[in-house]
């Protein structure tokens, strides 16, 4: 027993010595030098060309956090992003040097005190410049073209309101203040007149255009209402519009083109013309989408997103095909692949390029439409962009 105790004691001593050897302190390691503090900078964007795109994305899974994605459409390269708050509407200044965002913020993100503002950013670097407080009536909806527009001379900005009563806020941009508000019951959208910097119209629910004349301070001076130019019960128009000189163009749910000349004292409507033959109508072809058509004034080409098997309520369906028309002859001259397009924008100039926003993975798809012969396949496709993008604007 003594022998065993001596063996156990020896073993215990060996373990203690071994543990002591492991725990023995080592020489301190040399401490590496601290890294220099990183200096954050704002990188300027490459100079804008005619192919830069601004893609509005209301981020519908988290609506308080909307964005505008800035994209080089030539290289299909992502350039930058702006926050646009809750249901923001955007447009560029007439000289393309500034980006306007009319939006809403709540003090507790999705609740609390409401604040409506017009934010102004530089288009060269996306840096914030200033803001103007707006009446808390700015419309909260998906962004579309007629919700925000500038007068031809760039002085006034027109903001669509809905509470749900509809009105238009007039912002004096040089003075950085709200100049006034125009009541427009039953009407929707702001359509600035070309050649008349103090005049704008709005489309009304009875098929008429209400037109407002402003004074030099931006207050309402006079107004008039046109005769109906479409039947809202039989063939309502999409609020998206294009201008061809002084001619304002709309497309209807039923596939008609409605044109109104913005000249003289009152709008002058033209006779509507059809996009569809009787056979195509019978097959169920109809226009559809959000920013669903684009117009090239130089070539006279009209690009319209069309879908087949249409039914009541399908007017927002993505495109099965893009139909191309000559507005001078009022005849279709070709078709392009639809690419499931929800919206489109046209880069004009010497080499026109059509950009489609595809509902399939939120990709941008471009077509070279500069030649007399229409292409049969896309020129380029982007990577997926954003979360729920809906509206395009060219620089």
TrEMBL record:
<dbReference type="InterPro" id="IPR015943">
    <property type="entry name" value="WD40/YVTN_repeat-like_dom_sf"/>
</dbReference>
<comment type="similarity">
    <text>Belongs to the aromatic amine dehydrogenase heavy chain family.</text>
</comment>
<keyword id="KW-0560">Oxidoreductase</keyword>
<protein>
    <submittedName>
        <fullName>Amine dehydrogenase large subunit</fullName>
    </submittedName>
</protein>
<keyword id="KW-0813">Transport</keyword>
<dbReference type="InterPro" id="IPR009451">
    <property type="entry name" value="Metamine_DH_Hvc"/>
</dbReference>
<dbReference type="Pfam" id="PF06433">
    <property type="entry name" value="Me-amine-dh_H"/>
</dbReference>
<dbReference type="InterPro" id="IPR006311">
    <property type="entry name" value="TAT_signal"/>
</dbReference>
<keyword id="KW-0574">Periplasm</keyword>
<keyword id="KW-0249">Electron transport</keyword>
<keyword id="KW-0732">Signal</keyword>
<dbReference type="InterPro" id="IPR011044">
    <property type="entry name" value="Quino_amine_DH_bsu"/>
</dbReference>
<feature type="signal peptide">
    <location>
        <begin position="1"/>
        <end position="23"/>
    </location>
</feature>
